[in-house]
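Section 5.1 Outputs to date
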Amino acid sequence: MKNLENLKFSPIVSRETFSSIFGFLTILLFLSIFAGCGEDTISEDISGFNKVLSTRYDIKAPEGLAKFYHDYLYDNPEAKLTYEMSPQTHNRVKIVMINQRPVDKNMLAEKIEIVAKYDETKWKIVVINRNWKCRSKGDSGEWGIEPCI
């Protein structure tokens, strides 16, 4: 206790004030880390595509949905697509589709993340986000939304 009495932060600021400020800064740091980390993406407008999708009862698998979305949007028969699925809550599934041969020749790869819901008869897209890697930055480049030149 004797050492704590010798520890003074400022003659006009109490220890309680300092701990409050320190706690606030700590929370601010954690918020900036968690909110600031992650990839930049562009959200797609899905209203028109959901209208088309509402008439398609033949698509049963998540891969089929992702392939249908890609083929509907792009005329790219040479696409090299890979899929990764992860189940979500409320009959939803997250589909991550990566195209290693995108239409834009300046892109190295394009990633499309789809969150969709299946109601036992048809699919409905909840959200679609896109981003890509530029050829100029190579394989080590990060996913982003900056134009590839």
